[in-house]
Amino acid sequence: MDTLKLVPRLELEQLSIGFGKKAILSGLTLAIKPGELIALAGPNGSGKTTLLKTIGGLLAPLAGAAMLDGRDTSLMDKREKALKISLLFQSATSDWGFTVEEMVNQGRFPHHGSVKRGAAQNTQTAALDKNIVEKAIRSAGLFGFEHRVVTELSGGEFQRVLIARAMAQGAGLLLLDEPANNLDPKYQYMVMSLVRSMTARGRVAIVSLHDLNLASLYADRVMLVGNGGLVAMGRPSEVLQAATLEAVFGIPLVIAPHVHDPHIQAVFPPLPDTPERPV
Question: Which residues lie below 8 Å from residue 96, measured CB to CB, with a gap of 6+?
Fold first, then answer.
């Protein structure tokens, strides 16, 4: 199913982002390797969504560049972006009566462009698209949903449709803004597992997350932003430290080993300052 034609590499070169002349984050310099899942964490208003949009070429940087395979994403045309970058934002909705199959098939549109093909090539292309779409639907756990209308799906089901569309798109870079937001634990697990499976095929994923436990469980590295810049970048165990998180979020969080694996950290809020509950 995988249509990747190259191994993606993303580099941020002294990247500064914001609106007008006002910078939100400045001087971001780092390299992200193929196959990495990066959790982007930081307080509300710290620039996470703006950073994803800038990396994806939807917003021009104030300075520096986001380079994907040596190409400045802000200079790519729409089709090149669509072939190389999948974007999924938390505000994504659909008011149209597409079926699941139709919406996942939209991920194939960038591969066709406006070039006219002969009948034999059209037939061959249609067969390839159908195979890719079917595999994406199955991989997202949506088998049997093909003819369901997306406006009738739950939030978790619709989120998986968007992930399946990104799978069918075959882009090397995935930018996801709070894909597990407002989902129950089951769907959070399913969505993050799907993203993890996509990076296992060599893609790069940057996923903004408020849930630091999901970052700890799934990310190869955590990119923590705040106070106008990059606070820390490294393995979850290196970044998710009590002092670092308190400095960024302004609350004393408790860090402890996961009950089933001491190498994985779990993040807890402080105990509430209320009378003890009855036992």
Answer: 150, 151
For every residue of 154-187, DSSP letters joined together read: -HHHHHHHHHHHHHHHT-SEEEEESTTTT--HHH
CA torsion angle 185 191 192 198 (round to 10): 160
CA angle 173, 174, 178 (to 5 degrees): 155
- Checking phi first, is residue 101 left (phi over 0); if not, alpha (psi -120 to 50) or beta? alpha
Domains in the chain, CATH or no CATH each: 10-112+119-236 (3.40.50.300)
Question: Would the pTM count as exceeding 0.85?
Answer: yes
141 exposure class (CB count in 10 Å sphere: 0-12, 13-18, 19+): middle
C-beta separation of 10 from 52 below 8 A: no
| Amino acid at residue number 123 | T
Please report which confidence band the pLDDT of residue 124 belongs to, taking 50, 70 and 90 as the band edges.
confident
- Torsion 20-25-26-32 (CA) sign: negative
Q: Are 235 and 220 in contact (CB under 8 A)?
A: yes
Residues 3 and 123: their CA atoms lie apart, in Å, by 18
Sheet with 71-72: strands ordered across: 22-32, 10-19, 63-68, 71-72
Tell me the β-bridge partners of 177: 208
Instruction: Give the pLDDT confidence of 6-20 residue by residue, as tens digits.
Output: 468 999 999 999 988
